Structure formats: C-alpha cells, structure tokens
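Exam prep: given the inputs below (a chain plus 2-deoxy-2-amino glucitol-6-phosphate), describe the expected output before reading on.
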Amino acid sequence: MCGIVGYLGSNGAYEILIQGLKRLEYRGYDSAGVALVNADGCLNVHKSQGKVSNLEQTAAAGDTTGHTGIAHTRWATHGEPNDINAHPHVSQSGDIALVHNGTIENYAVLKKLLSDHGFTFKSETDTEVLVQLIEYIKLTSNCTLAEAVREALLQVEGAYAIAVVERNDPDTLVVARKSSPLVIGVGDGETFIASDATPIIGYTDKVIYLENDEMAIIKRGEPLSIVSVNSNQPSKIDVQKLRLSLAQLEKGGYDTFMLKEIFEQPNTLRDCLRGRITSDNRRVVLSGVELNKEKFLEAERITLVACGTSWHAALIGKRLIQDFCQIPVEVEYASEFRYGNPVLGPKDIVISISQSGETADTLAAIEIAKEKGAFVYGVCNVVGASIPRATDSGTYIHVGPEIGVASTKAFTGQVTVLTLFALAVGQLRGTVSPEQIEEIATALKAIPATIEETLKVDAEVQKLSRIFTYAHNFLYLGRGYNYPTALEGALKLKEISYIHAEGYPAAEMKHGPIALIDHEMPSVIIAPSDSLYDKIISNVQQVKSRGGAVVAIVSKGNTAMNDIADFCIEIPEVPECLTPLVASIPLQLLAYYIAVNKGKDVDQPRNLAKSVTVE
Ligand code: AGP
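Solution:
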C-alpha cells in the first residue's frame, strides 16, 4: 500500500510534498519520488529507493522549483523496490508524470497493446503502463490531459488512486480513485491531494473524500471540478471539516509512535466509550444498532471478517456475541472468505473489522457479502475510509490515527466496540439482563483507568525484555477469551522484533506443540483468575516440567503462580470477557521492548505497511 501527495497553489510545491510524504511513510517506504512542473514548462522528476530522507538527498542536487507537483512513497506490489520502479512514472515523451496507489490487474494486456504501438518500458511496474496509456490516448485523440486520463481509466481493471501532471501545463492537476483512498484538501487559492488527511493537516481543515470512480480536475484559478469516470457527469462536491489535529500526529514526547499509542490507550478508550453507555450503566447506545433494530432482531447468524490483528479482535468478538446475544458466530479471514463462496442470505449479518478501512481483502469480502444479500456492518477507525463507505452501517472506534504499523490502540478499540456491540444487541434481543449489562458496562467504563493501572508494569516488562532479547522462538498460550490474546501477543512480537512466535490454545499443547518445549523455547501464558484458571495452571506445569521458561500474566494478588512460573506480571482483575483488554497491554510492551533491544525500526518494520490495500 502506497502513499500519494499532490499540490497546486501559489507556494513552492516541493517542501509541501516532502512533508506530506513523511506523514505518509507509515503506508509504505520501499522508495519515494516527486515530480514538479514549473512555469518554464519543465517537468523535473526525482526518485530514490528507501525512505523519504533518501529522496531529499537525491533531489537536493536537482531542480525543485514549481508550484505544482505530485509525490509518492511506495510499498512494492509489482516490481522490486528500486529507483527504476519508484514512482512517479513518466510517459515516453517525458511530458506526463503519474503517481499511483493500487494495482492495475490488466496491465499485461495493456502493456502488450502499447508495445505493439511502439511504446517501450523502463520499469516492471503496472503504473508505468497507465501513464503510457494516457499518453497514447492523448496523442491519438488529441484531447486534454483530463479527457485522456478518464478514457484510460475506463480501460483499467483494478484499484487506483492516481495524480497526474503534464509538463506543458503547470496549472492543471488531475486525480482519480477506485478502491484506493484519496482526499482533496481545499485551501485558499491552493489545493492539496493525499491518500489520507494527515499531509493536509495544518494547511486547511476543508476536505473532500473522493468517491469511487470519481475524477477531479484541479485548475489554477478555476472552481474544482469532479466528474464520474464512467459517465463524465458532474458529481456532488461534499466539503467536510477535518477534525484531526497536528498534535494527534506528533509523537507526543515518546520515542516512537507505537509507544505513544500504547500509552494513549486509556485516553483513546475514553474517546471510544464516550456517549455509548448511559450514566446509570444499564444501557448501551450504539447508533449503528439503534438504526437497524430489525436486522439485529431477525439475524440468524453473524460472520466476522478481518485480517491480522483485526482478525484476533474478531475472535474475541465471536465469544462476546455468542455469550451475550445467543447468535451463532463464525470468524473468517477476509482473504479466505472472499474466495470461499460463502453461503449467505438476508438473515445473515457480516461484520467487517478494519483499523484502516482500506484493507483490500476486507473490502472485497464486504462486496461479496452485499452481493449475497447479507447486512454488512463495519467496525473501523478511519472516518470516511472506503470500508465505512461500503458497509450498510457501522461503528467507528474513534482511537485517532494509528501511525505505528503494529496495531495496539486500534486492537483495544476494536475489542471495546465489539463488547459494546454485543451488549447492545443482547439488550435488544433480551438475551442479556440489565444487571449483566450494568456489571459489564460499569467495568468497561472503568477500563481506561484499569489500563492506566496496568501500564505501571512498563518498567518491569522493560527489565524482563532484556532476558528474552535473543530468543529465537516464543510460544504464547491462552484459553477462552485469551486464546485470541495469545495470538495477538505472538503477532506483536514477530512483526516488530522478527522473532518467530506462535499462539496456541493452551490445552492444544499436548497435541503436538509441547514437543517444542525446552530451555530455548520460552512461553508467555495468559492466566488471569477466570473460569479456566485451574485448567491453565496444569498447562503452565506441563511447560515447566519440560524445561521451558514461563512468563505468566496473572491477576493482581495471585501469588500462587510465583511458585510455578519463572516470571509473573500482574494485571488488575476484571470480568472475564474484558481480560483481553488488560492482558494485551503487557504483551504489547514486551514485544515493543524486545524489538527496541534488538535495534529494530518499531514504527516501520521491514516488509510491512500500515494498511494492505492490495491482495
Ligand atoms: C497488525 O499489527 C498488523 N499491522 C496487521 O495485521 C493489520 O492488523 C492488518 O493488516 C489489518 O489491517 P486493518 O485493521 O487496517 O484492516
């Protein structure tokens, strides 16, 4: 998944574009590039492999003048990360430059057609095919840049958010999107475009979220024009007020975004809960449920679809919904669901869970669920993202922009919303009593303070991390609500420290994985004082008796475990269904500090991007 930025206005475009790219680097950072059009009719392109700082070094030796430009930071999908494959890509004549986030699925066919007409290609990318196609259409039809872009997009199959400029016209910037996101910032005599709103903050708070299949023609001194790619008919222009602040973006004094986001979970969960539990704690109010009561009353099955950490939240959601709503729940990886020919109908509810709201597999799963007649509900963090706009209804988790590639506050936000959702639907269907709601809702309202308390284990976990910095493998074990917590703890460790880690249901050990246990295979075992505690004690003993080191996550005051496990980390006691919210905090910290000890780039781990908008 890549990031694109564009500018047309009265200021120098280069600095604005570079700062914008830096705010988008979490979307992908294999390579970066910029194309600038100046008043002398020059189109200057600078690009380089690696991070934006490499691009700045490259561009410093070149011409960076111009009031119009486009820029790109890349997460490779076609062609390896290198200078040649870096965007912007330029047409054969050198007249047109383009940046692209997405995939052109029929690029091979188009490339053959263009090659047959004498076009040659420098890169392995699908994007270069698109800019050459635009040039081919412009030359053969003698039309404007915008007309050529639209005609080219009618021939394209796949996903795109693009920005296009032309050497001879410093007063025009053309953008369009399908499936990949694109936001337009409307300034005073200047216009910004970006993959999300973060590069725009500080310049304007007026934004337009371009819809699928829309193209915007930005011309200096003229009103913005937005048309349908398919029909060429004008689209309604809906200018919204941006509510993100720069402060939300800064690291807030922490070394990394990830650490900031771990420590801001008490506040982000206050935002997530705000206005959703009545003052007497006896009712949950979720507008998405209130407005679709019939759907939730007649639902006969719920299917949760998600990827990665969001899929772990879905596993917890399954237990919550079954416990409080007595509705059968299935959980599917979105990538498996979309190709699994799911059998769905009008009594089915499909819930998509996604932090970014741009994950391609999850978006595709939603489309299939809708085609099959299911009611689709979204749990998402990014307001105005593609997934919330594709679902029938939903609930935002409101935890603010999550910049660290490894998800932390979004996970706890998703689990919190799923808890609210289960209580809201349970109260609607009468499968949960007001007393049960009061018990859970009271504890849920206190969760921000409970996590504040839990975060006090920070120094203890940082010290513990030094013991395991050079481990090569880890097992994470949990039961019931905390089997998904174990999976999430393992994912955190592997994705930022690059140490192999696996999560298992603790009781599953004796069916094979226990063969792995020896002094070189430490285990983290989540063992709160819940209904399964007595069962998990024996799992801890099984691991210890085979020489495995055990880090146990236990409820505060449980001193018995000190006699069995090698290390115990105490967490506050909460109702069983809320233990993942608390137990996940030391697991986030453990993964974080081990990765820092190993000198890893915690915010931008290798090979990863914050949102996977391609298959
Ligand atoms: C989690 O730490 C990862 N960054 C990744 O698994 C992520 O959860 C997954 O790609 C899904 O992203 P989404 O929630 O934005 O859809």
